[in-house]
């Protein structure tokens, strides 16, 4: 088996990305309400920060056309996506404002709530920190829900079920 060793930098960005891709993550779709309508983005960079107070974080790429909508959002919802919701995750990885074929309802604040997710965290924006080419968005969880099921996984640039990726 061949091992690739490198020092992360501009010339080794692909190798660094490949190394990061060895770590499987869950998949989320984050939604918010904007002045022009609902907005969503697929994100795999999601984790808990604190139980008391209840805080979570996720990261948004600064080069994304949707970045500013989320970096300035007062409220957003983070949806943990189930393994059978891969089309939903792929859809919002490509586009952020096309909700025409999506099963959703607005919450009391107008934030889109997606149907069928495994878990959801309704957040009030707590902080937005610089993180290189991303922003680190910390949300205070106001409400949460979960249901049984297997999560969608992202590894080595591919979506898969819990046991479906090598």
Automatic annotation (TrEMBL):
UniProt-recorded name of the protein: Flavin reductase
Pfam family, one: Flavin_Reduct
Keyword Ion transport on entry: no
One Gene Ontology MF term: FMN binding
Keyword Oxidoreductase carried by entry: yes
Highest taxon above the source species: Bacteria
Residue ranges of domain Flavin reductase like in the record: 20-161
Keywords, sorted A to Z: Oxidoreductase
Originating organism: Antarcticimicrobium sediminis
Gene3D superfamilies to which the protein is assigned, alphabetical: Electron Transport, Fmn-binding Protein, Chain A (2.30.110.10)
């Amino acid at each position: 088996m061949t091992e690739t060793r490198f020092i992360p930098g501009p010339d080794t960005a692909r190798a660094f990305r490949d190394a990061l891709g060895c770590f499987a993550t869950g998949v989320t779709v984050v939604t918010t309400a904007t002045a022009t309508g609902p907005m969503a983005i697929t994100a795999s960079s999601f984790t808990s920060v604190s139980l008391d107070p209840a805080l979570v974080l996720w990261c948004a790429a600064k080069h994304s056309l949707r970045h500013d909508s989320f970096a300035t959002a007062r409220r957003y919802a983070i949806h943990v996506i189930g393994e059978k919701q891969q089309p939903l995750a792929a859809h919002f990885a490509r586009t952020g404002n096309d909700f025409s074929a999506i099963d959703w309802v607005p919450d009391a604040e107008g934030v889109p709530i997606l149907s069928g997710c495994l878990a959801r965290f309704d957040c009030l924006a707590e902080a937005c920190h610089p993180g290189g080419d991303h922003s680190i968005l910390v949300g205070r969880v106001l409400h949460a829900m979960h249901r049984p099921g297997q999560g969608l996984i992202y590894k080595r640039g591919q979506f898969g079920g819990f046991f479906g990726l090598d």
